[in-house]
Amino acid sequence: MTAADSGPSVAGPSVAGPSVAGSTLAEPEVSEPEVVFALRGQLGEIALNRPRAINALTHGMVTLIRRQLDEWAAAPDVATVVLVGRGERGLCAGGDIVSLYNDATTGDGRASLAFWADEYALNAAIARFPKPYVALMDGIVLGGGIGLSAHGSHRIVTERSKLGLPETGIGFIPDVGATWLLSRAPGRLGTHLALTAGTVRAGDAIEVGLADSYVPSERLPDLLVALETTDADAAIALFSVTPPDSELAADRGWIDAAYAADTVPGILARLRADPSNEKALATASTIERKSPIAVAVSLESLDRAAALPDLESALEQEFRVSANALTSHDFAEGVRAQVIDKDRNPQWEPRSASEVSQAQIDAYFAAATWPEPVDGSEPPN
């Protein structure tokens, strides 16, 4: 997640050349759009075009991507859609966290709720898109970037990929459908990733279920060209290779045993049960540095998502949780410490996992209501 540095700007379909994270593309001028749509052959390309912000997602970008997807879904000349990120650093670093912080601390919260409503609807639309949706998850892919890519039908990682959900480190809870995805990961790997706010490389991303195929980044331009004329499955098969081994798969034993506990204090105790397991001990320390309430709510959110019937139900649950997190102490404090003041010393409330009550956890799942507007306007439909 990162801060946006300008308002939304978008463009319709163009004939611009291929663009992928890692390519040597110039920084866009101020007048350039934040999303560029291109149609080449049978391929429709969505290019996130905010490289200075690692293509951080704004509300305007969400709106235009959704509109273009709806158009391409019905277009007979579009066989495949591909999502790419401009610039060297990555596909997408997440949402506009500074705008959310400002809305939480000085606004009425309505802009944030409207953003999440549209963002989560886009996540669902990507998951049910009727044509191949290929996400090139090259470089950094965090938070909202996971929502744009990991619900696609064809999810490609490279040697440069770093996927993560950093929410508990800023007092927030995984969203954009991540609770649906992570609750269905092998064993307890999804819970481990959510609570630690860690990042994973290509092999682990595939193991956890956030990606499908591994393509070396140097081959992505050729893959894009192939997608212009070739079936998505066949094109990806031409360029994909065996992914690196998953480190998490090798750690499944202690991860599954520790995260089988019902509570965060129980998980921490199990992680520290074997003094010789340095990875487990380090994991416990990592979790304890995150927001205790956010970690506890994340655990509860994944547990509840595991029993839900579909992605849409998980997104509805996440909307309630996000709305309640917006007004929490720890979200404002986490963003202040990590993004605004950057002192890296958040003062969480409660201060430890043992102080978090079930009533505090349950409050995050209460029905979300639109705040009273400061300008008398009505909430969006």
Automatic annotation (TrEMBL):
Keyword Mitochondrion included in the entry's annotation: no
Q: What class of enzyme is it?
A: hydrolase
Spans traversing the lipid bilayer? none
Q: Which keywords belong to this entry?
A: Hydrolase
Which terms does the UniProt entry file under GO BP?
Answer: L-valine catabolic process
Gene Ontology CC terms, in alphabetical order: cytosol
* Swiss-Prot/TrEMBL catalytic activity: 3-hydroxy-2-methylpropanoyl-CoA + H2O = 3-hydroxy-2-methylpropanoate + CoA + H(+)
Query: Region (Disordered) spans which residues?
Result: 1-27
GO MF annotation terms: 3-hydroxyisobutyryl-CoA hydrolase activity
Q: Identify the residues that the record assigns to the Enoyl-CoA hydratase/isomerase domain, covering every copy.
A: 44-365
Q: Which Pfam families match?
A: ECH_2
Identify the EC number(s): 3.1.2.4
Name the chain's protein. Answer: 3-hydroxyisobutyryl-CoA hydrolase
